[in-house]
Design goal:
Blueprint (H helix, E strand, L loop, with lengths): L2 E7 L5 E5 L2 E5 L7 E3 L2 E2 L2 E2 L3 E4 L25 H18 L8 E4 L7 E8 L4 E6 L6 E3 L8 H5 L1 H11 L6 E8 L2 E7 L6 H14 L3 E4 L2 E4 L5 E3 L2 E3 L11 H15 L4 E5 L7 H4 L4 E6 L2 H12 L7 E5 L9 H4 L4 E4 L7 H8 L5 E6 L2 H13 L2 E10 L9 E7 L6
Parallel strand pairs: 3-6, 8-23, 13-14, 18-19, 18-21, 19-20, 21-22
Antiparallel strand pairs: 1-2, 1-4, 2-3, 4-7, 5-6, 9-10, 9-12, 10-11, 12-13, 14-15, 16-17, 22-24, 23-24
Length: 412
């Protein structure tokens, strides 16, 4: 059996292993380890650890060997935090930007209030859990150190839900969010809704204490699943994007507040349901821009129902195709931007050409962020502060918050 030395971890958390002039990827390994195994199609499927790293720990989850939900649970907390900071710094360095991550803020175990689970019917019932690594097989989860206890406790009822509404030939997706009113569940891929299925779903949701269930666009609301965002209470559209943990959301809001400071007029781009807009509206007038109308409607309703907030306006606009231009940005003292994984290249060019004093940037992909950061720096901005906000503990996913400030004397 060939022995390999793990040089480093790639962006997805796999180890890059070397043996002579051969290179291969291996999962669940750490830099510096000596492993044994045979490579096939550039991958060592089941590496045996010959010499473990000092950063290796025993994974506490019983599903870890199979489940693809976590891939770094075999590494110490300190290693994972340092590795995620390094991923961000390396991506920026590749764009010619020297920067250091000032802090890594990691959400605690069992803190994910939103999870997308997979479900399949079986002859004896149903499976609900996460996919196995690099597989379409659903691992039936009995415990999970990531999701909130309320979601974990709901797994038996979610299996009943899959048994009721899934066909034997298709997988269903369940986006489950914990709210103060109960679980909010959006299901896709299930059987077509009819009166009988709706009646069964209503009975199950009522007995389980769920707040809302949306079945392929048909919503049954028992109690409005309102979430607190700043002083506001917002009922998000079914399946809407939300920050994964309350702790991560608080860290991101704190980072954005610190960057924006005393700005009186703020643009919130890719605003979603108002995570940042509603918090900043306590002290600033905010213009929230988002490509989808439904999240903005939820944001607006939340703002109107909250006392003491300053004015919040909304605009439905595809910022990838129609970014806010420099003349439109001129009326703002600060901009907050939280784009999807693809980043915001077009909006970055417009921001770089503007005179906005400060831009608070939240990103979920270090590579596209680094590309956009280079555009900002070339436009006269300085990357002033950089933090990793790790809401996806034990996964290779990396989120960050950054502040860009315009150099004094730059006129574009």
């Amino acid at each position: 059996m060939t022995e390999w030395r793990v040089e480093r971890l790639g962006r997805r958390g796999d180890g890059v292993a070397v043996a002579g002039d051969q290179r291969a990827l291996a999962g669940m390994v750490l830099p510096g380890e000596i492993i044994a195994g045979e490579a096939e199609d550039g991958r060592i499927a089941q590496p045996r650890i010959v010499t473990p790293s000092a950063d290796r720990v025993r994974a506490p989850c019983p599903h870890y060997r199979l489940c693809g939900g976590c891939s770094l649970m075999h590494a110490s907390n300190g290693f994972v935090a340092g590795w995620k900071a390094g991923v961000v710094e390396t991506a920026l360095a590749a764009q010619g930007i020297a920067a250091r991550v000032e802090a890594v803020r990691t959400s605690p175990p069992r803190s994910r209030r939103r999870a997308v689970l997979s479900g399949r019917r079986t002859k004896k019932g149903a499976l609900v859990g996460f996919h196995a690594r690099a597989s379409e097989v659903v691992v039936d989860v009995t415990d999970c150190l990531v999701i909130r206890p309320a979601i974990l406790a709901a797994l038996p009822d979610l299996r009943r839900l899959v048994s009721l509404g899934a066909s034997r030939s298709a997988e269903v997706s369940l986006a489950v969010t914990e709210t103060p009113a109960g679980l909010d569940i959006a299901v896709s891929g299930g059987k077509p809704i009819d009166a009988g299925l709706m009646q069964d779903l209503a009975a199950l949701a009522g007995a389980a204490g769920w707040a809302r269930i949306d079945w392929g666009g048909e919503a049954l609301t028992l109690r409005p699943p309102a979430l607190p965002l700043g002083r506001a209470q917002v009922v998000p559209p079914p399946g809407a994007f939300l920050q994964a943990t309350a702790e991560g959301e608080a860290a991101l809001v704190a980072a954005v507040r610190a960057a924006v400071g005393q700005a009186g007029r703020v643009a919130d781009l890719f605003a979603g349901v108002g995570t940042f807009a509603l918090a900043l509206a306590e002290t600033a007038e905010v213009h929230a821009v988002e490509g989808l109308a439904a999240p903005l409607a939820a944001l607006d309703a939340g703002w109107r129902g909250a006392p003491g907030l300053r004015r919040v306006t909304t605009e439905t606009r595809d910022l990838a195709r129609r970014p806010l231009l420099p003349d439109e940005l001129a009326r703002f003292d600060a901009v907050v931007i939280d784009p999807p994984r693809a980043g915001a290249e077009a909006q970055a060019h417009a921001l770089a050409a503007s005179r906005v004093p400060v831009v608070a940037w939240v990103a979920c992909d270090p590579v596209t962020f680094a590309r956009d950061a280079r555009i900002m720096v070339e436009g006269g901005y300085r990357l002033d502060r950089l933090e990793v906000i790790d809401q996806f503990r034990w996964s290779p996913h990396v989120e960050l918050a950054a502040a860009f400030r315009k150099h004094s004397g730059v006129d574009r």
